[in-house]
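Take our chain:
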Amino acid sequence: MTTTAPVPGAKSDERLLKTSPLRKLLGRPELGSVVGAIAVFLFFAIFADSFVRAASLSTVLYASSTIGIMAVPVALLMIGGEFDLSAGVMVTSSALISSMFSYQMTANVWVGVLVSLVVTLAIGVFNGVMLTRTDPPSFIITLGTFLMLTGMNLGFTKLISGTVSTKSISDMQGFSSARDVFASTLTIGGVDFKITILWWLGLVVVATWILLRTRIGNWIFAVGGGEEAARAVGVPVGRTKIGLYMGVAFGAWISGQHLLFSFDVVQSGEGVGNELTYIIAAVIGGCLITGGYGSAVGSAVGAFIFGMTSKGIVYAEWNPDWFKFFLGAMLLLATLLNAWVRKRAEATA
């Protein structure tokens, strides 16, 4: 048996060519948001003297975490090609369920927390099943869920409590331990950090692992890139989308419990409009509206940019009325930058 010696100067198989580090970097969806985050940080570091202090950065991280906890699952849903317009009011629904169930049943607060988890996940399943079993797009379905939850939040709260807010449960059994889990403060190096920052970072790590190291992550990208093509190669499209909506519901449950155990009393009208904030953070972080592209890390960076802007304007002593203007400008710039980065990545591929 003989072997054929390689021909000197022959071209190697292009399938075996290694991708350069620069090309890999340009292909990362969060690249544009990282550049934007550095620019925003330097901007406020120059124009707001107190912005770079440890206590100020702790406040920025807290503001970012309250958005980031929801931005991570929303980003995964967007990568899968769908939206959830009910995400904002679902946070309030989760808090209301925990509070009212615990108060009315005079049960341990943890019973209300677990009931809230089950009901909130059921809302996510409802959105996913409605999407996969009917023809309307996710925009219409979740808009309907948004309106129903908004009405139910107000209606049930007034029916049970007699007002638009819940009753205090701070003196009930289990409240202090639940507050430690969802709304405590950790002191590190003399600086106070909210535990939501750990929840946020934990979700980013888990979501990144799912996207990049599991078969489910491949399914998410495949479904977002083309539903029919994904189904043709055996991807369980329906189960993937239902799972993504359950992920958003889980994030809403965490955020809702933080809302409840931070303030004890919950207003039934809260959360309206926050769904756009989560979507904006995901888009700034590199997620495409059309699906199939994005990352959990990018959504975290997008939430961080949002937090820096919201608090940076305060530290710079500017009129906060301009916050929405800066947010809109960042959204447009991030979208254009992300599109440019993606084109460069495709051109060098």
Notes: The first helix runs from residue 21 to 26. The first strand starts at residue 185 and ends at 188.
